[in-house]
Structure prediction request, 424 residues.
Amino acid sequence: MPEATVRDRARSLLTASGRSDVPPFMVMDVMAAAARIEAAGGHVIHMEVGQPAASAPKVAIAAAHAALESGRIDYTSALGTPSLRARIARHYRETYGCAVDAERIVVTTGSSGAFILGFLAMFEPGDRVAVTVPGYPPYRHILTALGCEPVLIETSSETRHALTGEALLAAHRRTPLKGVLVGSPANPTGTMMSREALTSLISAAEGAGIRFISDEIYHGLDYAFPAVTAAELSPHALVINSFSKYFCMTGWRVGWMVAPEPLVRPIERLQQNLAISVPTLSQIAAEAAFEGREEMEAVKRGYQENRRILIAGLPQAGLNKFLPADGAFYLYADVSAFTSDSLEFAKQMLEQARVAATPGIDLKLLHVVRDSPAVAYSWTKQIARPEAGGSLLVIDRDAASSEDSVPRRTISPTTEWSSVSCRR
Ligand SMILES: Cc1ncc(COP(=O)(O)O)c(C=O)c1O
Prediction:
């Protein structure tokens, strides 16, 4: 074969698969711009990423040190170490008063790993699975990469961004669904579903033959009322959780699921083949983390204070259309009074006020769902640092009320976060 033909054919081998063609996180552009400002010596208040404020509980770190000292770190069973699975089952008894058999607990590589295993075990390629928008983008991107079709159901502040049974069934009538995924507390709205709302959604889903997946990663970070686990409401629901958020263990990559009993063995087979097992050191640390709750409750109190500052501070900045986040560490503010382009707004906020936040468009789906426009703030550590010298986003009301309906210069860096209150 002529050399040129071989080269052409070889080049075609470099083409990525269609399924890998998932959108990037637009917030990464905001982060890159923030990094440029910081590299030039500027100070940026980071409110764009849901990164917890503290390190893993001290007991967890100590357990990992001790395990390293003792020598071997081997594979574990694909479902996780028996003692961690038992400890997680105990957590359901202690926290929710709900009996969950340890045999149904599967330890995963963060909740991200749980989505992959759960979707593979529950759905065939082409199956339609409902997710809400605004919502955590990887839900739909993981589904797409696995050959499933995410069906976007738009929620609004009227229902506190909760998916209702009626909205789910209406979508099901349009295009039959095989599954639905919801999170409560939710990213990016911070809203939570009440026991009644969750119960009625699960029964609407299961009554229509739609499998229910509950992302409970922000459980423990609830301020308005105690979060309810779907594990208590249905043995058929797939419940996903993680040590990343409440236990501040993002980089340890350890999470879990409570799987419906018939799915445990299929998930075990998948995990055996896809990952063998979850990092052993992380499992050891995660088990110990349950003994560090006192320390994590102190971190949570810090979040509560940040939430209070943000809820009081945003209206002073001209932003008063938001729901007072019930849980997690996000607040989703409507900025439609000032712009029709949330990405541009986020860029201006960064450039002029030195506050990095996530543009609402990133949390919806460009070209499919209209831009809100809104911005999402994550409040973990940045606003509570006493030395935070950044500026509070301030809207220039005069510019906003001029004939120019989309003012270009809407933000001025005049108010210091620290002057609003920055104590911890
Ligand atoms: C709603 C939601 N689910 C899941 C995840 C993934 O977390 P992890 O894989 O670290 O458990 C995140 C991370 O930000 C999230 O916000």
In short: Confidence is low (pLDDT under 50) at residues 365-369, 382-424. Residues 50, 110-112, 136, 183, 187, 215, 217, 242, 244, 250, 255 surround pyridoxal-5'-phosphate (CB under 6 Å). The radius of gyration is 23 Å. The longest strand covers residues 128-133.
